[in-house]
Write a sequence for this structure.
């Protein structure tokens, strides 16, 4: 399946359910490809890989929380709150729930008094680390370089 945000390329919509795959030709499923008109193209989650990715990692805090959990794994709630300077407790709770719902984080609860909860990245979360690393490298090269050299 090819998903790209450039309307000039071909899209295969078989796996995202936009094409009826019940049609058969010589007892084989036909792969239908369409050229999308630039003027009428709508960038939906189903047709734009960048938008689908941003649904999972978008927002001010998600990448930062993932970066902290990767460096501190396993990470506890209080530790995340201290390391993510400026985040509120309710926002941290919300971000952690969203990442867990999207399959990016594992949340392990220990039956102790007081209760202890630890967060680690799942395989899906680990597969997003190259994006997090690329963002960190870009920040070092383009934003923090002048701050620390000057």
């Amino acid at each position: 399946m090819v998903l790209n945000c450039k309307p000039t390329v071909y899209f295969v919509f078989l796996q995202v359910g936009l094409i009826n795959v019940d049609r058969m030709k010589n007892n084989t499923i036909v792969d239908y490809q369409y050229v999308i008109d630039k003027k009428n193209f709508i960038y939906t989650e189903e047709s734009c890989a960048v938008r689908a990715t941003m649904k999972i990692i978008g927002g001010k805090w998600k990448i930062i929380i993932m970066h902290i959990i990767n460096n501190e794994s396993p990470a506890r709630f209080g530790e995340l709150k201290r390391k993510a300077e400026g985040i509120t407790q309710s926002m941290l709770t919300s971000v952690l729930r969203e990442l867990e719902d999207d399959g990016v984080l594992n949340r392990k609860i220990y039956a102790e008094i007081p209760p202890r909860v630890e967060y680690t990245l799942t395989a899906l979360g680990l597969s997003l680390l190259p994006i997090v690393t690329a963002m960190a490298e870009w920040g070092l090269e383009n934003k923090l370089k002048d701050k620390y050299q000057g």
Notes: Residues 1-54 form one domain. The beta strands are 10-12, 24-25, 28-29, 33-35, 75-76, 105-110, 116-121.
